[in-house]
Write a structure and sequence with these properties.
The strands form seven sheets. A five-stranded mixed β-sheet has the order 1-14-3-2-13. The chain has a four-stranded antiparallel β-sheet with strand order 9-10-11-12. A hairpin with a 2-residue loop joins strand 4 (about 140-145) and strand 5 (about 150-155). It starts with a helix and ends with a strand. The chain contains eight helices and 22 strands. With about 350 residues, the protein is an alpha+beta fold.
Length: about 350
């Protein structure tokens, strides 16, 4: 096989492999600061593809002896397989699809377990909850709550649920799951092709780098607690087209998943241990879930802001509130807060 054809085939195969490797959770890939390289390869993908195809064409024109055609044919088929797998099977959006239909039910018709954990959103009197056992597959659900567009997201690897308004430059935007960087999902907007980090809503690559999506208030709690707080609320039901991919037993949300990427370290402060992360201004703190499970309430200060982090009696629903400056520490009994002479 001539060197020109070999160079073209090898170059195209290596390009497609690296393009996928940098943005997918493959061995070693998430530990590198490779976001810039990944975005460069992605945005210039057609330049590289055309260039390598031209090299392949130039090598093919030279022809082959009659008895020496098997090797270039085999190499070409292998390269074609790499291209097809990299563009159709190994893409994040082909693995994790959006729900075909969005169905919500009130408590009287709800089929999701009471102990299931949801991301709840309330706006203008409308309250909707999105089960994590569905979100870990979809990664994002686009919806409208109380007239406000919302993008409910979840990353099953870093176990982070965030809700944003999908508004970019004043216009409603759509996003696709493009991959992962440092074990956190990334989305690409349809207009500018910028990449946005799921855990922060920040554009980390592309024309809008540094921009932030507006955050929509949300809470993580159980279905039972959701209906207790929102008797007229709704819960998203399973999408039949995606049913086979759902964690119907709720193992992930209970920390029982055995997958290398989605497992849980039940001891504290390991890579896969649970924490609640808080940010106020430029100050960020992480709180050990084991400590929270034991104490159920943590009075603390982030920067100059006094806060209360608390866990409900169901050991799943948690919330953070700002408490009065200079006031006494709050206490929690059952699910009732007491402090400064008041109960909540």
């Amino acid at each position: 096989m001539n060197k020109i054809l070999c160079t073209g085939l090898a170059g195209l195969a290596v390009f497609e492999i690296l393009r996928v490797y940098f943005i997918m959770p493959l061995p070693g890939s998430q530990g590198w600061d490779s976001l810039g390289a990944a975005y460069f390869l992605h945005t210039h993908r057609w330049f590289f593809r055309i260039a390598f195809l031209l090299v392949i064409a130039a090598g093919s024109i030279r022809g082959f002896p009659v008895g020496a055609r098997k090797l270039p044919l085999t190499a070409s088929l292998i390269t074609l397989a790499v291209v097809l797998i990299g563009n159709f099977q190994m893409t994040a959006e082909s693995m994790f699809k959006q729900p075909r239909t969005l169905t919500f039910r009130p408590q009287s018709e709800n089929k999701v377990d009471d102990d299931a954990v949801v991301i709840g959103v309330e706006h203008q009197g409308e309250a909707k909850a999105y089960p994590i056992r569905f979100l870990v597959y979809h990664h994002q659900v686009r919806d409208t709550v109380g007239g406000k567009p919302v993008l409910v997201t979840y990353c099953s690897v870093c176990r982070t649920g965030r809700c944003f308004e999908p508004i970019v430059k004043g216009h409603r935007e759509t996003f696709r799951l493009v991959g992962m960087d440092h074990f956190n999902a990334m989305f690409e907007d349809a207009t500018t092709r910028s990449w946005w980090r799921q855990s922060t809503g920040e554009a980390v690559a592309g024309p809008l780098k540094g921009a932030m999506l507006p955050e929509a208030d949300s809470a993580q709690l159980t279905v039972r607690k959701w209906f207790e707080l929102h008797p007229d609320g709704l819960v998203m039901q399973a999408d039949e087209a995606s049913a086979e991919h759902y964690d119907t037993e709720g193992k992930f949300e209970r920390g029982e998943s055995k997958g290398k990427l989605t497992r849980t370290e039940h001891s504290s402060w390991k890579d896969k241990s649970w924490v609640v992360g808080l940010q106020i201004g430029e100050v960020c703190k992480a709180y050990d879930w084991n400590r929270l499970s034991e104490e159920r309430i943590i009075n603390d200060t982030i920067g100059v802001t006094p806060i209360i982090l608390l866990l409900a009696a169901d050991q799943q629903s948690f919330a953070v509130f700002e408490r009065p400056s200079g006031g006494e520490a709050f206490i929690l009994r059952d699910d009732v807060l007491s402090g400064n002479g008041r109960t909540y």
